[in-house]
Design goal:
- The structure is a single chain.
- This protein is an alpha/beta fold.
- It has a single domain, classed as NAD(P)-binding Rossmann-like Domain (Rossmann fold, 3-Layer(aba) Sandwich), CATH 3.40.50.720.
- It has six helices and seven strands, in the order βαβαβαβαβαβαβ.
- A seven-stranded parallel β-sheet has the order 3-2-1-4-5-6-7, with helices on both faces.
- α4 runs parallel beside α5.
């Protein structure tokens, strides 16, 4: 039975990923932040593990919780949008730290903790990014802190893909589309169920030739 670790599964895309993978017989380890979210993940058939990405030492605690696991797939979904301000309105320090710690630092701290487990199975690493993090596709300055964090996340993923790719791990950044979640809002284009179904299809189809790519939920490549 394949094993999938989903970081950031309390709600939205992460929770739906856990539900769909568990429903298809995948062994799911899903992280949550608040205690009330654990029960829902457990009821889906996932193993719920607490991980607050703003707490010091969380990667080491998670590594201990999954020690000995051989991971076929790791999906880093955790993220926050931060303030809506457009460039050049300066973000304050607290907002900057919260967005960058959650959207960038957490992934950079997690990757070393799962690298060996992924390499042992020739697994896949996916980070849920956003087209808003594409420098080449940027045509407006809205939510510039969020955009900067996703661009930094993409850069981190690309760098990791060089080292992990040499060990047989396929690394990718994924754009889930504009999704009807708490972050995306009710007016978004995609239902969360449809976005996740498409993301799973892309993840299943990638091979070593896709290592280090930025992919849309429909499988098309996005410009960095």
């Amino acid at each position: 039975m394949p094993t999938c670790l989903i970081v950031g599964a309390s709600r939205g895309i992460g929770r739906e990923l856990a539900r769909q993978y568990a429903g298809d017989g995948v062994r799911v380890i899903a992280t949550y932040r608040h205690a009330q979210d654990a029960a829902a993940l457990t009821q889906m058939g996932a193993r719920a593990v607490r991980a607050d990405l703003l707490e010091d030492g969380w990667p080491q605690a998670l590594a201990r919780a999954i020690d000995g696991e051989a991971l076929d797939l790791v999906i880093v979904n955790a993220g926050v949008s931060g303030p809506q301000a457009a460039a050049p309105a300066a973000p304050d320090r607290a907002d900057f730290d919260a967005v960058m710690r959650t959207n960038v630092l957490a992934t950079m701290q997690l990757i070393p903790c799962v690298a060996d487990a992924l390499a042992a199975r020739g697994g896949k690493l996916a980070v849920v990014s956003s087209r808003m993090g594409s420098i080449g596709c940027t045509s407006e300055g809205s939510m510039w802190l969020y955009r900067a964090s996703k661009a930094a996340l993409n850069s981190a993923l690309k760098s990791a893909s060089i080292a992990l790719g040499a060990r047989g791990v396929v690394c990718m950044a994924l754009h889930p589309g504009w999704v009807q979640t708490d972050m995306g809002g009710r007016g978004a284009d995609l239902r969360v169920e449809d976005s996740v179904t498409s993301l799973r299809r892309v993840i299943a189809a990638v091979n070593r030739s896709h290592n280090g790519r930025f992919l849309n939920y429909n499988g098309e490549q996005i410009e960095w």
